[in-house]
Design brief:
75 residues, mainly beta, five-stranded antiparallel beta sheet, 1 helix, 5 strands, 65% strand, globular
Length: 75
């Protein structure tokens, strides 16, 4: 079952200096997340939405590739 999240959890993606990259969790289910990747490379912003398994997401957090930032309110 997929559920909507009232406030998105945002994680900073470890990236090259000068690049801003982060991931927002949009929805979650028992075994995966629907996420939005945002990459800002010198003012050129690209966003994509993808699914990622909870297992892979947790590994990324444990290794420091993803770091919690803030929660973003969704109206």
């Amino acid at each position: 079952m997929i559920s909507d999240i009232k406030s998105m959890k945002r994680y900073n993606i470890k990236s090259l200096p000068g690049n801003k990259e982060y991931i927002d969790i949009l929805k979650e289910s028992d075994d995966e997340y629907l996420v939005r990747f945002t990459r800002d490379n010198n003012g050129s912003v690209k966003t994509t939405e993808e699914t990622i398994t909870r297992h892979l997401f947790n590994i990324c957090v444990q290794t420091g590739y993803l770091n919690p930032m803030t929660e973003v309110s969704v109206a």
